[in-house]
Each structure stands twice: as structure tokens, then as C-alpha cells.
Amino acid sequence: MSRLPFLFIFAGIIGFVLFHVSSLISLVGWISDYLRGPTGWFHIHLIILGWATMIAMGAVYQLIHVILQSKIYSEKLAYFHFGFFTLGVSGLLYGFIRGELLWIAVFATITLIGIFLFAWNMCVTLFRAAQWNAITISTACAVLYLFLTGLSGMAMGLNFAFNEWNTLHERLFGAHIWLGTLGWFGMLITGFSYKMLPMFYLAHGFPTRMQYTTLSLWNLGVLTGAASFLFEWDFWTEWIALLLITLATITYNIHISQVYKHRHKRYPGSGIAWSVYSCRALALFAALMLIYLLRHPQDLLTAKFVTIAGWIYLAGWVAFMILCYLSKIVPFLWWTHKYGSQVGKPGTPTMSGLLGEKGVHIGLSALAFSLLLLFAGLMFDFQTFVLIGGIGFSVFSLGYISLIALVFTR
Amino acid sequence: MDERSEEGVCELLRQVYDPELGINIVDLGLIYGMDWKEDEIIVRMTLTTPGCPMHETIAGGVKYVLQGQMGFNTVEVDVVWEPPWTPNMMTEEAKEQLGYF
Question: Which residues form the domain of B40?
């Protein structure tokens, strides 16, 4: 079995721990601070690149052969990808802490090379397999958006260095955030869930039309939003982009309900059950935000609104979904590595024996509660809620990831 | 019961579990058929989902059990996708264990 997914998951877990430890050290003070400075850049890129993207890439390498029933184009290239990406992100984060422009420039370039290697590997793999369905199309779109996110980030970095296109900087920034958060993560998580969710529910015979509706709406939303930022279109274009994304979250939840209706396994496991709750919450928050903006259009690009929306989406959905699915990914990886050759021998444990359901349920419940507290604190300016919610989020995250990491000792 | 009968083989294959579901491959209804001649056996089976990540481990388990406990020298596992597996192929015990409905 390839060691590739292990590398990414171990590196991702390290990134995750570093993020939460540094967050606790600052007594989560950074959450309420202005994010557009080196401290904010450090924290955001640590969790986005050092953890979420790292884990997502590992999951892609692990699951691509499940989805395509063929191997990745080049495992060697994937190792180079890991090397460049890990080195690049590490140096980039150091550059952010120190505010060292040259460091940021050099290591952002290295990171981008890593991303390009990943994108190339995935493109060739997908095109060679030539199996186009909602899962593979979503994956291809996700990889494209990741690459565009990296490019736009690089462009911003170059502007910092050379001040050549200051008028473009803010536009690139908006597109960079939109493409990375909604494009890369949104497409990848929804796309892979089209395969994973029915597997864990043992669902068969469910309709798939909503998968295509979701990916179409989501893509339209991503492209509209990115274009809106790049070409400085008006509020209504941005609102329409949000509307498209909101509609996509609704059709995505309809799809989830259809899978649920066609399930043959009563309970898919706590991690998957919580992932469904997170998707429901995402659609609700998206709809509420949309309605709020109709009444308060001036709030759309304020720091407060962007911070809240970012936390809800990135922590409440992206990060939470990854944590939910880790409860399946890690036991599967470890079980296959350690016990895969022992199938049929007496005493071979099952996968469920590697990670306790109760711990997963308690961990994710505590995380969800902490996040809701944090969101409320940010929305209503209750600093106590921000403090307790933020500390809870980090403490329970560290507890949960420890549970996950303990699987590797079983 | 002659061990080298279909029932005997299936009884042995109950030792091979889908590690995610925790149910053996016979009760899951994954075994479609088998043919053997002297010390060679071909087991025709499927998996619960195309591209199932447990493909190699389950096939390995089938080989281990049939080589080790039934003395077959050559065990070939032919994973097929037609007819596609459906939950109806499970035994009542398996359905009950999953909370099937």
C-alpha cells in the first residue's frame, strides 16, 4: 500500500496541532484581530494550507483509485508534490511570522510548484481514466480552482514585492479567497461525498441528478463570484454569486436526503452523521446570510461580515467535514496497512474496533457547540463567547485529533 | 459434510469479513459462485461498491482461508460487477446486524 496518504495525513495533523496550540497561546486573541496582516495570514494559511489542504490532498491520493478504479498517473510525482508543498508551506508560514517578504516570495513559489505538480498529476490521471461523472468532474474543478487560487496568491505576492499593479491587488484578493474557499474545498468535499456518503450508508438506487445540479450551481457561483471580484462588478453580482452557492447547498442537501432515504444501514457512524448535520447547518447559514444581505447590503465586504462568514464556512463546514471524514479515513488507512494481509485470520480486528464511536460523537458534539458559541460571539460582539468558543474549539480539536492519532497505535 | 463442497467453502469463507461493515462476505451475499478442479479453485464474487477500497484485502482473505484451511494450491478470486450487488442479497442475519430497512 502506498505510503503517500500517510505522509499527507501526518503532516496535516502536525499542522492542525500547531494551529490550535498557537491559537491557545494567543488566547485566541487573533480571531478578533484584523486578519489582513502577518499574524492573520499566518493563522489562516496554517489551517488552510498546513492542515485542510494537506489532509485533502492525502485523501485524494487515497481515494482516487476507489473513484476511478485506476492508479494515480505518477506516484513519484506525488512524492515530489509532497516535498515541494510541505517545504513551501513551512517556509511561507515562517515568512508570515517574521514579515520577511523574500521568505514569503521564495516559499510561496515553492508551494505553487507543489500545487502545480499535484494539479498535473490529477489532470493526467483523470483524463486517462476518462470516467466523467459528478465525482470526477467535481474533483477536476476543485484541482483547477486550487491552481487558480495559488496563481492569484502568487500575483498578490508579486505585487507586494514590486508594487506593479496595486489597483489589481484587492480584486485578486477577493478572487483568491473565493476560489480557494468555495472553489477548491467546496468542489472537493461535495465531489468526494458523492462516493463516500452512499458507501457509509450502504445506499443503493438513489437518483444522482442532484449531484449534477449541485456541481453546476456551485461552479456557477464560484465563477460568478471570482469574476465579480476580478472585474469589480457591483453588489448584485456578488449577491447572485452567493445566491448560486446557497442554492447549491440546498440541492446538495436534497441529494443527501435522497441518499439517506435509500440507505440500508441504519447508522453510518458518528463522523458521517455529524457531517450531515454540518451540511444542513451550512445551507441554513447560507440562506440566512443571503436574506441578511438583502437588508444590509453595505455589510457585504466589511471585515466583520467576512470574518463571520469565513469562520462559519471554513471552520463550521470545511474543517468540520474533514474532521468528520477523518474518523473513517484514518481507521481505513491504518487497518489496511496493519491488518489488511490478515483478513480471514482469527482475532483480526474490524475497522470500527480501532476508533471508538462514543469518543468521536463526544468530540464532534463538543466542537460543534464551541463553534456555535464562537459564531454567536463574533456576530453579536460578545468577546466572552469568542474567548470561550475559541478556546473550546482549540481544546476539543486537540482532544479529537488525539483520538484520531491514537488509531495509529492500535 | 465433504469440506470440498460449495457449502463447505462458504462455511470457511464466513471467516472473511468486510472490515467496514463487520459482516462476513457470505452473509453479505458477495459470493456469486465457484468452480474447482483438483487443487485449483476460482471464486466468483463481487463487492458492495465498485472500486471498493477493500478489494485487495478481501480477495487476499479468500485466498488465505482457502489455501490454508482447505488445501487448495491455487485460489483465483474473480471480482465481477455483474450483476451489481444490492442489499437484498444479504442474509437475514446480515440485515439485522446492519439495522437494515
Answer: 6-89
